[in-house]
Design brief:
mainly alpha; two-stranded antiparallel ribbon; globular
């Protein structure tokens, strides 16, 4: 007899040919709509990005599914996998924010938000270092740091580029470079916290997030599933707040920059200190 959780999982989303066909149709539809609407940003066509992202996700998840059983049985491999997640997240965030060499600084806000929380959970015994739980929890937190870093960094740099004259005016009034940039960029970068705040405010009323549903399908009680989901949401708020604060500081100090065409007589903003 099949256990109830397995039956529930199978009835929720059976892995068969129909699922494959539906996934392909959805991916083609998403890419087609993006192409029709000409959705693009800074020379990147999102129709192509959507298609490639879908294919990459399929390949990567297939590889992880094949390796996960072996990884969780070897502590060194488990820690190496978490380090790989962090490295990929840092590079992805950095390249989304800027194309110049300063993208490497994105590793700081991604790590500053996620890694201390993971370490705290391990040290307090809430998260075993030798079990499968480490990978999804670390992935959720690192992913939250990635998203907050990208949104905060991009919005800060875009705001500085669009309001370069105001930055110059603030500097003329006696503000330091950092202070002037911070005054302009802070409100825009802070908007990166909105998705996480809205998700936390509406949980249970609008959405039932993955951790909650996954634990229910695994046989956990609704109370236990709710407690775990609450922890995930609050931990994400902490991770994202740290990541946004750190990436904003790096942008304000000119450590993360983006080449911006400046009008005649204007200074390039933000510029790395000493350049």
């Amino acid at each position: 007899m099949i256990p109830a959780p397995v039956q529930s999982a199978s009835s929720l989303l059976p892995v068969d040919r129909t699922l494959g066909v539906v996934l392909v149709v959805l991916l083609v539809a998403a890419a087609g709509i993006a192409a029709y609407a000409r959705l693009a940003d800074e020379g990147e066509r999102y129709s192509r990005g959507i298609a490639l992202a879908g294919v990459r996700a399929a390949v990567q998840l297939a590889a992880v599914s094949a390796l996960i059983g072996w990884v969780v049985r070897h502590q060194a491999a488990l820690l190496a996998f978490v380090a790989l997640m962090y490295g990929v997240a840092s590079r992805t965030a950095g390249r989304r924010i800027t194309r110049n060499a300063t993208w490497r600084w994105a590793a700081v806000p991604v790590g500053a938000g996620a890694l201390p929380v993971v370490a705290l959970l391990v040290l307090t015994g809430l998260l075993p270092i030798d079990g499968i739980a480490l990978i999804p929890v670390a992935g959720i937190l690192i992913g939250g740091g990635l998203t907050a870093t990208v949104l905060g960094g991009r919005r800060a740099l875009e705001e500085l580029a669009g309001r370069a004259g105001e930055v110059e005016a603030a500097m003329a009034l006696g503000f330091t470079d950092r202070e002037a940039r911070m005054e302009i960029a802070r409100p825009a970068a802070s908007g990166a916290l909105v998705p996480g705040l809205d998700q936390t405010r509406t949980v249970g009323l609008v959405t039932l997030p993955g951790a909650f549903v996954g634990m229910l399908l695994g046989g956990a009680s609704p109370v236990t599933a709710g407690a775990v989901q609450l922890f995930v949401l609050i931990a994400l708020l902490a991770v994202q707040a740290v990541s946004v604060a750190v990436v904003l500081e790096l942008v304000a100090r000119g450590l993360i920059t983006r080449a911006v065409p400046a009008p005649a007589g204007a200074v390039d903003l933000p510029a790395a200190e000493g350049e």
